[in-house]
Design a protein that fits this description.
heterodimer, A: mainly alpha, two-stranded antiparallel sheet
């Protein structure tokens, strides 16, 4: 009976109850919902499966094995932290959509078949679009529509792939899919849109920074990690994922370092981290798959923490642009320390969660993959040390503000934000210092020791090389914050080229439409004039005929009838 | 030595690439 009480249902019900409540009761329900969902999850025995028959089709509403277990716990933990952080916001729409979004994501990882998964996949789209929309302003509204467009397209691809598989008689249980079938490629593309594959990534740096600080934190937790879960479930060891993940790391690292808005820059950082996971899934060895899972779990927390810190800065100063910030350490020490922990974990420094998780993928690439994959991953690690480990802390907290930028007398972040950030520090450190607990939850049991001397030496040398490069850039004034204008990505296609193309096409279509209308109306006019000439009041058929002519014609017709009858 | 060099080269690539694009955009803006 308790198996029916899916944590997803608990969260969505909690979201609806919170929407109806007021004041402290609402805050209590917002915080209690992830806890209650956690209790429901803890009550599920491993191996539980719940089937439902709907319209003659058996759907696996819930399947609880080690892979969904680790993702569901990470989602619930992160949604609890985000709920605390977001208590400074009064908007119930945001809290409701955040909780329901978490419920949909948890339902997605627990779904045992493609149809159930599709339903939750679409629900995450719906609730996350509301989160972007509630960011406020014209930009957020436009971004939410573009975001919705990408996500709906992803849902349509998944629907098309699922229907095609069903048509071929393939069982719809959500397991490893065979890429020799075209339908599997459609499903891979659907997952790829949400996992921010190259070019399909446009929605991420476009939409996430437009949400409120709380909204961005919630958005960073679920959509992309649900896609990583889907790739792990559907395409473990799919080789095309390696050449897809590599450009994600390279181009996103470059943008993460150069984009002026730091929240947008960290969106690119998120894409680079996803690239590491995608490559890990593509390599497909037990170590790399474990590494991808562990990296996804660690990324959920450190990414959320970085967005929490930058959100707090945005909340207090009104900007997240690197060039307009600086010297905030003394004014926001709590925020600074927490953000630095998140950044350092993202950079993969030893003793933090990024190190104990991503190094598994690096080692797997070294042992199994082609050599270039290892170099790409090392490039990603070195770049993360720059854009997360150095750029963000220096630009926001340590470097003095640029000349001409007034010093901002700001206070520390609101209490709810500070508590949320402080609690988010715990998993970033715990996974780094005591990784065995996380490793014990991974689907494949492996003997992996991240703190081997060689690995530590290697990581230190890599980081030192990156720091040296940063110092060279500093010395020669190559760092971007003071000089970089708006940097266009492939979003140029959506934001600049598309409106021009739509205007061009609309002009051509309008002109064609006018020509067709003028031509058709001329023909209709001619027809009416002809009709009037023949049948109007002065037409041939309307004339009064003389009696003699009429009699003559009657006689002719009668004669003709008689002749025909005689013949 | 290899990781040190890889880290240094990667860092320079990221910083240098960003600087080149930023300068190019600045130059284009000034020209316009």
């Amino acid at each position: 009976m308790t198996a029916w009480l899916s944590p997803a249902l608990v969260l969505i019900t909690g979201a609806c109850l919170a929407a109806l409540a007021r004041g402290r009761l609402r805050a209590g329900l917002i915080l209690l919902s992830p806890v209650a969902a956690g209790v429901a999850l803890a009550a599920l025995p491993l191996g539980t499966t719940v089937d439902v028959t709907l319209f003659g089709t058996t759907l696996t509403w819930l399947r609880f094995d080690p892979l969904p277990r680790i993702f569901a716990w990470a989602f619930l933990g992160a949604s609890f932290l985000a709920a605390i952080y977001g208590l400074y916001r009064r908007s119930i729409v945001e809290h409701w959509s955040a909780l329901a979004y978490a419920g949909a994501a948890v339902g997605g990882v627990l779904a045992g078949d493609l149809i159930t998964f599709l339903v939750f996949w679409e629900l995450t789209t719906l609730f996350s679009a509301v989160l972007v929309w509630t960011g406020g302003g014209r930009d957020a509204y436009g971004a939410s529509l573009r975001y919705l467009g990408f996500q709906v397209f992803s849902g349509l691809l998944l629907l098309a792939g699922t229907v095609a598989l069903a048509h071929q008689g393939v069982p719809l249980g959500f397991g490893a899919l065979d890429l020799s079938q075209p339908a599997a490629w459609a499903i891979l593309a659907a997952f790829g849109v949400k996992a921010a594959f190259p070019v399909a990534h446009l929605w991420l740096p476009d939409a996430y920074p437009e949400a409120s600080p709380f909204g961005t934190v919630v958005l960073s937790i679920f959509t992309t990690k649900l896609a990583i879960y889907a790739l792990l479930r559907g395409f473990p060891g799919a080789e095309p994922l390696i050449p897809i993940g590599a450009p994600m790391i390279v181009f996103a690292s470059f943008y993460a370092f150069a984009v002026p808005d730091l929240r947008r820059a960290m969106c690119y950082g998120l894409i680079a981290q996803l690239g590491i996971m995608v490559m890990g899934i593509g390599i497909g060895t037990p170590l790399s798959l474990n590494g991808a899972i562990a990296a996804a779990v660690a990324s959920i927390f450190y990414q959320a923490l970085v967005f929490m810190g930058l959100g707090a800065v945005l909340h207090r100063t009104g900007t997240a642009r690197g060039a307009e910030l600086g010297g905030l350490f003394r004014q926001m020490p709590w925020t600074a320390l927490c953000t630095i922990v998140g950044c350092v974990a993202m950079a993969g420094l030893p003793l933090f969660s990024g190190f104990t998780t991503k190094t598994m993928v690096f080692e797997a690439a070294h042992a199994q993959g082609p050599l270039w994959t290892w170099f790409v991953l090392l490039f990603g690690a070195a770049a993360a040390a720059l854009y997360a480990g150095l750029r963000v802390p220096l630009a926001v907290f340590f470097r003095p503000p640029a000349p001409g930028i007034p010093a901002r007398p700001v206070g520390e972040a609101p209490l709810a934000m500070r508590i949320g950030m402080a609690l988010a520090v715990v998993p970033c450190l715990a996974i780094g210092i005591w990784p065995a607990r996380l490793y014990g939850l991974l689907p494949v049991s492996l003997d992996w020791h991240p703190y081997a001397f060689d690995a530590l030496l290697f990581d230190t040398a890599l980081g030192t090389g990156a720091i040296l490069a940063f110092l060279v850039g500093w010395r020669f004034r190559l760092l971007p914050d003071r000089q970089c204008p708006r940097l266009w990505d492939a979003d140029w296609l959506v934001r600049r080229a598309s409106p021009v193309m739509i205007a061009f096409c609309a002009g051509r279509i309008g002109r064609g439409d006018r020509l067709v209308r003028v031509f058709c109306l001329a023909r209709v006019d001619n027809f009416i004039v002809t009709l009037r000439r023949h049948h109007g009041p002065r037409g041939v058929l309307a004339r009064t005929w003389p009696t003699g002519s009429t009699v003559l014609w009657v006689a002719v017709i009668l004669t003709a009838s008689l002749v025909l009858y005689a013949v | 030595m290899v990781p040190l060099l890889v880290g240094f080269a990667s860092g320079l690539a990221v910083i240098g690439g960003g600087a080149i694009v930023a300068r190019w955009l600045q130059w284009r803006r000034e020209r316009a």
